[in-house]
Design a protein that fits this description.
- The protein is an alpha+beta fold.
- It is built from 8 helices and 15 strands.
- Strands 7, 8, 9, 10, 11, 12, 13, 14 and 15 form a 9-stranded mixed sheet that branches. A 6-stranded antiparallel sheet has the order 2-1-6-5-3-4.
- It binds 3-[O-phosphonopyridoxyl]--amino-benzoic acid.
Length: 294
């Protein structure tokens, strides 16, 4: 069993088959906790500080005390990768409210738990980057900003899962989520962008979309490359009639969208601006300097 993945739970490592948390953990009982999905490429954890900062913002919003400092958390992520001898990985960092009783009151949970899973990244996307994926607007509205907004990366992802169930049932690759006012928010675990007349547009976080780390890189790249970039409310009509559309996220990176609710986007092929941004994103990964070598 020496080759088993080692999972970090509260300062100790457990083989994957023995890495367990209590059924009384409020993360399990109520989705009460926060998480991050992080990638390591060739020995560097991509945007680790940004992910840890976002985790802390999510925790702050739900009044969850992370039991480690940001530096300790960074070290714990790096050490988990070292322990597993992993240079390329998909890392799941979780801070759960911890063990309480069966009531909702988080005061019963005396200590939050930190869990770090460093797994291999399994890109099932096939040739999605070359041909694009299909998407659909789902009937499931995004969690409103005055509810369990997706600005908080909480353990409560049922909203996204409902979107995915709908996409699966319709034979479509990914769901796009609309916020309660009717504007487009994001994918189920990706931010969304369109290109219209050479300009790039993406919705504001006030639609309840997550402040994506990949999307921040893309916005920065547009600025660097002198591509006009606007943060603007997007309607479903604007998506249908876009010249190009794409998703961004840690897991899928940048992926073109070729069809939305059976409307072909542009000419149905990855467009020129999308292609430039996909290439430039790969360069950012390759030149990534802000990581600690694993
Ligand atoms: N919006 C939401 C709601 C997300 O959960 C993104 C956007 C993209 O953000 P980043 O920072 O990754 O560019 C996410 C990302 C997966 C997966 O395996 C992805 C996410 C969560 C759970 C699973 O694709 N989050």
């Amino acid at each position: 069993m020496t080759n088993e993945l080692q999972v970090y739970i509260d300062g100790k490592y457990y083989p994957k088959s023995e890495a367990k948390i209590s059924v009384y953990d409020h993360g399990f009982l109520y989705g009460d906790g926060v998480f991050e999905g992080i990638r390591a490429y060739n020995g560097i954890v991509f945007k680790l500080k940004e992910h840890i900062n976002r985790l802390y913002r999510s925790a702050h919003a739900i009044m969850l005390n992370v039991p480690l400092t940001k530096t300790e958390l960074e070290e714990a992520v790096i050490n988990t990768l070292r322990k597993n001898k992993m240079n390329d990985s998909y890392i799941r960092l979780i801070v759960s409210r911890g063990v309480g009783d069966l009531g909702l009151d988080p005061r019963k949970c005396s200590r939050a738990s930190v869990i770090i899973i460093a797994d291999t990244i399994n890109i099932k996307a096939g040739n999605a980057k070359e041909v694009g994926i299909t998407a659909m607007f789902t009937w499931v509205r995004r969690n409103p900003v005055d509810a369990t907004t997706h600005e908080i990366k909480s353990l409560n992802y049922l909203n996204s899962i409902l979107g995915k169930i709908e996409a699966n049932a319709c034979g479509v690759d990914e769901a796009i989520c609309i916020e309660p006012n009717g504007c487009v928010a994001e994918g189920i675990g990706e931010n969304i962008f369109i290109v219209k007349n050479g300009a790039v547009l993406t919705p504001p976080n006030s639609t309840g979309a997550l402040d994506g780390i990949t999307s921040d890189v893309i916005i920065g790249l547009c600025e660097k490359l002198n591509i006009k970039i606007s943060i603007a409310n997007l309607t479903p009509f604007m998506i249908f009639t876009a010249d190009e559309a794409f998703f961004t996220g840690t897991a899928m990176e940048v992926v073109p969208i070729r069809e939305v609710n059976k409307r072909v986007i542009g000419d149905g092929k990855p467009g020129p601006v999308t292609k430039v941004l996909m290439d430039e994103f790969q360069k950012v990964i390759a030149n990534s300097q802000n990581g600690i070598k694993i």
